[in-house]
């Protein structure tokens, strides 16, 4: 197992860090896109921004909280997303709700026809390993 390179070592080797994402602009893009798609007024846009900022704060908290097992973080993130969608629907009039509320696809792996599961991928990976590497 190798240790990660320090910033000065990466710079000496000419390795550039990945570009930093500007989360604020991503939020702005989401608000603009939803405002356009749903024909939101200024008040709705302001409320939408507030809801999305709260969603972001909740997700950051979940993923930075070391007491939450990693396996539970995905489910918590999905629950936050569903709560956020409900809060957004509460901001909308009936016509906007029809535009926003597309039928949800089931999340169960069994309902995903043609998609491979993580178990399928792991099995294929194990078969590809040389016998000397397997446990």
What does this protein structure show overall?
The chain is mostly helical and 135 residues long. The protein has a domain at 42-101. 63% of the residues lie in helices and 0% in strands. It has helices at residues 7-12, 23-38, 42-64, 70-91, 94-100, 118-128. The longest helix is centred in the middle third of the chain and has 23 residues, at 42-64.
SSE diagram, text form:
Layout: H1 7-12, H2 23-38, H3 42-64, H4 70-91, H5 94-100, H6 118-128
Helix pairs in contact: 2-3, 3-4
User: Which structural category do the helix and sheet elements fall into?
Assistant: mainly alpha
Number of helices: 6
Anisotropy-based shape: extended
The major sheet is characterized as:
none
Q: Give helix % range.
A: 55-70%
Distance between the termini: 17 Å
**Got a strand count?**
0
From the alpha carbons, calculate the radius of gyration and give it in angstroms. 21 Å
* Beta strand %: under 5%
